[in-house]
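User: what does the whole thing look like in 3D?
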Amino acid sequence: MTDGPLIVQSDKTLLLEIDHEQAAACRRAIAPFAELERAPEHVHTYRLTPLGLWNARAAGHDAEQVVDVLLEYSRYPVPHALLVDVAETMARYGRLQLVKDGENLVLRGLDGPVLEEVLRSKKVAPLVGARLDETDVLVHPSERGNLKQVLLKLGWPAEDLAGYVNGEKHPIELAPDGWELRPYQADAVEGFWHGGSGVVVLPCGAGKTLVGAAAMAKSGTTTLILVTNTVSARQWRDELIARTTLTEEEIGEYSGARKDIRPVTIATYQVMTTKRKGAYAHLDVFDARDWGLIVYDEVHLLPAPVFRMTASLQARRRLGLTATLVREDGREGDVFSLIGPKRYDAPWKDIEAQGYIAPADCVEVRVTLPERERLTYATAEPEERYRLCATSDSKTKVVERLVRRHQGEQILIIGQYLDQLDDIGNRLDAPVLKGETSVAERQRLFDAFRSGEITTLVVSKVANFSIDLPEASVAIQVSGSFGSRQEEAQRLGRLLRPKKDGKSARFYAVISRDTLDQEFAAHRQRFLAEQGYAYRILDAEEIEA
Amino acid sequence: MPPTPVRSLADELRSWDDERLVALLEQRPDLTVPPPADLGGLATAAVTRLSVQRAVDGLNARTLQVLEVMAVSPEPVSSGELSRRWGASVSGPLAQLRGLGLVWGGARSLHLVRAARESLGPHPAGLGPPLAEALGRRSPQRLAEVMEDLGLAPSGDPDTALARLAEHLGDPDRVKALLEQAPGSAPQVLERLVWGPPVGQVPDADRPVRAGTAGSPVEWLLAHGLLAVADPGHVVLPREIGLALRGGKVHRRPEQSPPPLELRERKAKHVDDTAALAAAEAVRLVEELGSRWGTDPPALLRAGGLSVRDLRRTAGHLDVDENAAGLIVEIALAAGLVADDGEADPSWLPTAEFDAWLAGSVGERWIKLALAWWDSPRAAGLIGTRGPKEGPIAALGPGVERPQARIVRQRVLGDLAESTRRHAEGMTSVLTDPAGSGLVDRLAWQAPRRASAGQPELVRWALNEAAWLGITGMAALSSFGRLLVEAAETAPGYGSGAEPARRTVGAKPAADLLDETLPAPVDHVLLQADLTVVAPGRLPAPIERELTLMAEVESRGGASVFRFTTASVRRALDAGRTGEDLTRWLAEHSRTPVPQPLEYLISDSARRYGRLRVGVASAYLRADDEALLSEVLADRRAAGLRLRRLAPTVLAAAAPPDVVLSALREMGLAPAAESPDGDLLVHAVPPRRSRSGGSPVARRQPPPTATHEALLNAVRAMRAVEENVRRPVVAGAEPPPLVPMDPAGAIAVLRDAAATRRPLWIGYLEDAGKPVRQLIEPLAVEGGRIRALELASGRVRGYSVHRVIAVAGTDETASGTG
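Assistant: Here's the predicted 3D structure for the full assembly of 1363 residues, as structure tokens:
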């Protein structure tokens, strides 16, 4: 028995004791095949999943390596059944291949019985064409994605070796003046390019846009970028103009407001999923040009219709970007088969340790509701209860105190309920940015906030994603959409751009004690707690006014 | 006494020494129930159909083959002839058959007990009846035709004709020569019947056929006596012809040894580590089952057992699948750790034994489970399958009983222990096929007649369960599993009193070895801000129990991960811990400081805990007049009601409402009863324990195996009776020396005497077991009773045949056979 840092559990979780001297080496060794599930302060939990193991296979690791790593670092005997299972799972990947045979796309079975098994499946039958010989079956190019999805569900993920169309050439270069690609960004691009297609996971604020830009430069082709909303689209455009040789004329926006197709086109998920007369009206964007690369920003939010469209784009290179590859809808498998395997992943705390994202101090402020409010809460209808406790007056007072405490810093106040936000805006005399605010007004407010003209900005959930506010150093969350872990992480992400003075960011979550609010908060915090962010608890009374 | 030729099995047994007799009784324990009076009685019991069948069923393939060879050989036969017919030396199997009392006689004149021959059915070794019997069914005219077709001299006497035919066709060379002249596909027809079954379907098999007019190969064969008519629809291959076609051997090849087991080598340490993990997990799961059922006992089904729903719930709670849950509850039952509580509304509860069990080390607890499993006549694998009655078989119910499962389990593991070994270089043999197909074949070889269609499944269950218990790991016996099997085999399980305790002592080395193999326990945990606790190794049981009380288990294995939740903390508070207790305990056992969120969780839960109180009251008193209630409370006459003020206007009483009402009335008050709707009765009941000593289901064991000493005493008693008989007890008119005789022999002599009304002397055991000698004239012998005239008293009385231990004729010495 070694005295290793890793404990392999029979339920396929791996516990890594991080204070152990071999912890760093072990983490590097298991990262390619195990998914980090939780990273609190002492023991990190990884999990072996079929997707993770297939990701590793796609990246060129074999079962023997995985087993060796487990045996090398494990403190206790590794359950035999688990090793067998790892080997069997990994052996399933690549028994089937999608390859180009001349002009044809072909499903090739390296293992006869497996090919027979999948061909007998009712789901596979409509996706394949004629049987060419013992090992090959014709596949229509438009079914490439659907077939991969189905095969993954059957547990026989196909290795896609059919390659990509080159796309229309369009020279793009990075323009490093006084900055350069960070090592992890370069690694991420390298990992992606080597794999052909796939997903890069980096924390909020770690510069995912630049990874996209570098991938475009590497590709040197026309590019379609899909983003969550218009503000985000504009940020992408500005960043590309600033960091690459691309000019304003080369970049088009395809949104509700404008429909420009240029060599680099940025489209929003919203416009892509807009239906007119029951049909998606803007699908032609995908075919508008011979795109050499498609970038999916915030791939964890990718809406179902875009998945379906993506299924028929398997011949184009695809890059997915995200901070949290946790999909609340559990469609990680679709991301794997349609966008591609995970090509790069770095724990938040690692990037923080390297100084590329600001350290953050998370504080849960607990407000004790006065008798009167408690009574109202206790007797409220169940569907009203969360709103009642989340929008308590007592919270507003605490927010005022917190804002006073952080006078002189750039403060974001984030909430779910518009009445509450308006109320807070009134009391603090701060502008409120919400869904109904026009794009131009939003742009103006963000610019004013960035320049320091406004120090306090109240925002609704429209600012959850992709809003780049590097100067914000304090965020106060007053309410949220119930227990969403991902929202909490994204909101913290707004603060993680490194600060000029190297200061920590401060994230406050104001919670009503002994109510539903507290229960949801506990759930919301799990992703961040698992990423190693420890919440401190503060009693509201302790905050000096 | 001069050596007399052995004339019967009884004779043979009389010549045996005590140890041989004891060995016989050990191998055929049914012979001692009821205990035979003497050796003659023993011989009678030994030749009864049921007992012989049992003995034959227990034979392995090798011995069974020799028995078959004997069954198809003419009697008496020599061992040399048997070896020739079998194709290998029969000395070993023959000694075994003699030891079992199935074969008797000298080496050159061996006899097979008739019941043994019958137990093999009409076609022993797949051979048909002898020629004489097979052809004897033909009419004399047909016989004559066959003889004519074979070129034999005719005979008017059917017996002579048959003998002649049998002799002619009994010569293999002649059969061969005949077959060379056979037309077309006749040899192929015989080929199909030669290795059995020897019967073939032929329409109108009894039609007249002659060699000259034979229209088909079958007709030709019938005409030449190479096939016989079994019945109008079937033909049969006579035994001698079959043997000739088999080349003189009864079997294709002698099954001298069991099929070899396919094995390969593995590191013994890996095997032990894997098995130790499983063993510790098994112990933990049974413990968790017990603590769960202690607070939340499932009900007993009316038909016995556990409902499917309760099994599913238990599985969910233990986080295992239903098959594993079924095994867990069955092992707990077998070990006497859970039992039916015997109440009117019965439920399953942990027993007092369970509490004692908890105190042991993992190893000690493990051997208790493993030995209980070893002896259990129940097959957990049956749970949930369709039983003979409607509905699936319930766990813990009577339908799970399958004594065959125990036999298979013990044989399979015994075989594994015998045929694999641990090598010096730290390697051990493991099964190449983890599913154990090799063991199935070997088991079938060990007792071919017991091999049922369900046997492979029983083997699979046995192996799965052994792996689950950690007796095996990676398809090999673990070191401690081997010690356990050895201990279990050397001290047979059933029996009462000190036996189980002795085995536990015998298995102690296994327990110690398991404890040594398990990783050393860790005595600390790591607390984290995300409200999880990691125990980076195996925890000592007290720490584990406390932690399981206050936090939910998230992951198990070499280490454990727990998560604190509001509910889990509340559970600890319910169990009587305070918030400070929890925080202090955590600080003591954690290597890292207690994180702030955890402190908050505990203190918040503790703060809210008990803000609502629930208590027991039998009645309440309420009045708007506070003074009135104060008055009642102060009155000494109300003391017996045990009143308590809950609020200014409410009193609670421990006495029931009717008592309260009458007491208040006696005090001169005018109380009114309220409807019972508001009356809250809450019982806080501590974990319950079954008072019964264990379920009769689990305790039902086969009859205790008699010890060697007990058997020896029984043998000596039989011999004493025997010798008493030889010494005349009752003085008769010149009684001749009596010849001890087994009842089968005696009955023939008595029948003969009854037929000729000839008086004879018998040795008879009276009711008290006292042997007497009487001169009788048998009148009738039937149904095991003899009606006879006792000549001394002149009375007719009845005798039981089985108590007749000796017979002597008045003029000639009767003789009998076994």
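In plain terms: Chain A has a mean pLDDT of 85. Chain A touches chain B at residues 1, 7-11, 13, 15, 17, 38, 40-43, 45, 74-77, 79-80, 364, 366, 513-514, 519, 522, 526, 529-530, 534-537 (CB under 8 Å).
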